[in-house]
Every structure is written in structure tokens, then in C-alpha cells.
Amino acid sequence: TAPILPYYSSRGILRRVDGMADIDTVAREIQEILASA
């Protein structure tokens, strides 16, 4: 995924989620990101 990070970042559409957080937190953050898209 590293090679595509600059592409999405430069367009202002990169969203980051801490994959090391507990599963409920990760799921909630992903849902929030998708809901705001």
C-alpha cells in the first residue's frame, strides 16, 4: 500500500485508521469514514 499513499494523500482523500486498535474501534472508525464519503 505504501506506493499509493502519496497519490491519495495529494488528492486529500487519504484516511488513516489505526489497525492496531481494538476491533470495535477500527470498525467504528471505518464506518465513520465511509459515512462521511
Rounded mean pLDDT is 95
Task: Give helix and strand order, one letter per element, not per position.
Answer: HH
Major β-sheet profile: none
| Total beta-strand segments | 0
Q: Return Rg in Å.
A: 11 Å
What is the domain total for the residues? 1
Specify the overall morphology: flat
Describe the structure.
This protein has 37 residues and is mostly helical. It has one domain. 51% of the residues lie in helices and 0% in strands. It is built from 2 helices and no strands. The radius of gyration is 11 Å and the shape is flat.
Keywords:
single chain, 37 residues, mainly alpha, 2 helices
Ordered list of secondary-structure elements with their pairings:
Layout: H1 5-10, H2 23-35
Short description:
This protein is mostly helical.
